[in-house]
RNA sequence: GGCCCCAUCGUCUAAUGGUUAGGACAUUGCCCUUUCAAGGCGAAAAUACGGGUUCGAUCCCCGUUGGGGCUACCA
């Protein structure tokens, strides 16, 4: 049974790199009918952020990544819940478990108590760096304090930590699913602290204990963990457990190829949510950062991603997070939204912009009309957040300079004649003909019959309706506006030129 | 500094021991056209460098360079 997990620290918001890690873990599990779980790694009490867990879960939920087990959102989506029988899935609720396993390690002499002060450690590191030596703990407490004495000091309440007794001979070799064989000399592996002086485990102990007890088969995580994998493997060995498979993902990069950071743009999933990107676009984009199924298709829904995904096709090099490509994906997904779906997505932005009244959504006729309005701009915006400003001209009679009515190849005199003529003609049209296609056919026929230049009519017509230099076409706008409003706006234009 | 990882157009990437090194985004030209967007057809643009192995290397090996990661009582 394939079981993968995403194990974020609640230190803020879900990072787009985290989203990708979660996504790959999810895709890998789902592809093989396995389980995907979420565990919260909150052993660092200092970096803990209130609501950090909730924020992360909400972003995952928004992205459509659903956990089978572990920490999840409660029904109201504003609270945290847990499901599954291998929990708890929040590390701070598992302290007694870690203590038990640390005790086992201590007994097996695979770990030892250390009473060294931070100052000594710091000095040691300075010395090592100065002498161009690899840094690491010198096993002072292992070598100088007999276990019984250490035991006594601990009982007496002396401040201490528990360290891994790393054998310093030989090398650790493991097979990474993405990178192949990785070898690291054991003498370079530090005697990592396993239990901190505050009683909390460090990542290294907790991750091994949890992945084992939660029966994780594949650990998919960021590249930054490669160098600590030997410590984890040593722990598996000490416990007599079978280690999981490892896959270390390449990093996401800034434009300058440094590790993706807040300094150079938005990195939180919520930032993109707030900017009006569609979750399916972000997910598709992020999936393609470092992975590619090989064909030429680029638009993949979550289900298609599951079908196509494989770790073998994940690249080894880091990928630049390129927002222009994200924009393209977003436009593609916007284009695929039907009017009702577009309205559903755009609604919160329209309300926030105070463009419309939330209560009006109940009114079917109104919401159908609003959906048509949104369709005018669907292919002209890149994000949902641009929609309110883009459709604003529909809601209020536009103000614009008279000169704008004049087509680049036309004259003001021409406008003076054409607009009233057009108005007169439109008034002869029946309401039943008031649709984009029929309007276009009729008006184009009328233009031809009167030997006007197409632009000399359509340009001022469009400007009269929109008040904008750039806008959707006049027929589309007219159809949405309705005959009465079109007449009003044309009269206003006539008033302006004369 | 030490250790580890990585390297194809500007960016995301495909491919092969022998190809005109393919696609997408971005850039750009033309077409369509009432404006914009979309769309259509084009253009420009890459195997980091140096050694091997080989009849032949972008691909395999070594080195160099460059980039990144780790080097915490952070994850």
From TrEMBL:
Residue interval(s) of motif 'KMSKS' region: 259-263
Gene3D superfamilies: 1.10.10.350, HUPs
Keyword entries, A-Z: Aminoacyl-tRNA synthetase, ATP-binding, Cytoplasm, Ligase, Nucleotide-binding, Protein biosynthesis
Subunit text: Monomer.
Family: Belongs to the class-I aminoacyl-tRNA synthetase family. Glutamate--tRNA ligase type 1 subfamily.
PANTHER family: GLUTAMATE--TRNA LIGASE (PTHR43311), GLUTAMATE--TRNA LIGASE, MITOCHONDRIAL-RELATED (PTHR43311:SF2)
Name this protein carries in UniProt: Glutamate--tRNA ligase
């Amino acid at each position: 049974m394939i079981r993968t997990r995403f194990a974020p620290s609640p230190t803020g918001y879900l990072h787009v790199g985290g989203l990708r890690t979660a996504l790959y873990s999810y895709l890998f599990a789902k592809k093989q009918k396995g389980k995907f779980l979420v565990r919260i790694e909150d052993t660092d009490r200092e970096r803990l952020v209130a609501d950090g867990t909730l924020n992360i879960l909400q972003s995952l939920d928004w992205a459509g990544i659903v956990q089978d087990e572990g920490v999840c959102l409660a029904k109201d989506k504003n609270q945290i819940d847990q499901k599954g029988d291998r929990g708890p899935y929040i590390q701070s609720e598992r302290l007694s478990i870690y203590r038990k396993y640390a005790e086992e390690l201590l007994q097996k002499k695979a770990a030892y108590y250390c009473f060294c002060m931070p100052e000594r450690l710091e000095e040691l590191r300075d010395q090592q760096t100065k002498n161009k030596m690899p840094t690491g703990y010198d096993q002072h407490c292992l070598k100088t304090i007999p276990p019984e004495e250490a035991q006594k000091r601990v009982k007496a309440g002396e401040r201490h930590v528990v360290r891994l007794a790393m054998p310093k001979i030989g090398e650790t070799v493991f097979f990474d699913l993405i990178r192949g064989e990785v070898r690291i000399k054991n003498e370079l592996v530090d005697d990592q602290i396993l239990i901190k002086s505050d009683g909390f485990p460090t990542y290294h102990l907790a991750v091994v204990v949890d992945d084992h007890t939660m029966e994780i088969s594949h650990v998919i995580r960021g590249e930054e963990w490669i160098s600590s994998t030997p410590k984890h493997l040593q722990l598996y060995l000490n416990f007599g457990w079978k280690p999981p498979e490892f896959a270390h993902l390449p990093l996401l990069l800034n434009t300058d190829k440094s590790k993706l950071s807040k300094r150079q743009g938005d990195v939180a999933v919520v930032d993109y949510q707030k900017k009006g990107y569609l979750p399916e676009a972000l997910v598709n984009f992020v999936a393609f950062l470092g992975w590619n199924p090989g064909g030429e298709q680029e638009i993949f829904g979550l289900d298609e991603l599951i079908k196509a995904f494989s770790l073998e096709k994940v690249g080894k090099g880091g990928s630049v997070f390129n927002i222009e490509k994200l924009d393209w994906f977003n436009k593609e997904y916007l284009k695929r939204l039907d009017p009702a779906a577009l309205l559903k997505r755009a609604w919160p932005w329209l309300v926030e912009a105070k463009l419309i009244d939330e209560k009006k959504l109940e009114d079917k006729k109104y919401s159908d009309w609003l959906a048509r309005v949104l369709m005018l701009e669907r292919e002209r915006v890149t994000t949902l957040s641009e929609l309110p400003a883009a459709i604003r001209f529909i809601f209020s009679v536009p103000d614009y300079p008279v000169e704008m009515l004049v087509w680049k190849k036309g004259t003001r005199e021409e406008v003076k004649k054409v607009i009233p003529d057009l108005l007169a003609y439109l008034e002869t049209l029946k309401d039943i003909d008031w649709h984009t296609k029929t309007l276009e056919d009729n008006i184009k026929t009328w233009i031809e019959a009167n030997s006007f230049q197409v632009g000399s009519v359509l340009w001022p017509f469009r400007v009269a309706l929109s008040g904008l230099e750039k806008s959707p076409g006049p027929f589309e706008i007219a159809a949405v506006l309705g005959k009465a409003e079109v007449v009003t706006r044309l009269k206003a234009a006539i008033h302006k030129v004369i």
